[in-house]
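Not sure how to ask, but would you mind making up any protein sequence you like and the tokens describing how it folds?
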Amino acid sequence: MFLANFDLQGLYTCGELGFNFSGTFPYLVHTAVTIIKIVVPILLIIFGMLDLGKAVVASKEDEIKKGQQTFIKRVIAAVIVFFVIQIVQLIISFVSNGDENITRCFNCFVNGTVEPDENGCVEIN
């Protein structure tokens, strides 16, 4: 699912935390996270091709090594950005000590999960 099934006019809550919010906020967070997961690898490929292409066209060994180093730095940065959500999810699972309300809120905002699977936001009628 690319975008979450939030009713942007609806009111939601995360479990029993008593935190009520409009559907717009988790929708925007989920959309931003999804876009980051798609755009970061694409930008890595594009910029990597440009860096290495410029180095090869220059035909100098120093330029090729510099291009490779830049590409490796970009790969490391892209991996960090791409996996930051999973790292945050891991940290939240350790900090929450199995509290389903915290996990439910995280799933609501990051994964865009809405009831009926009871792992995300609950719509308030």
In short: The mean pLDDT is 78.
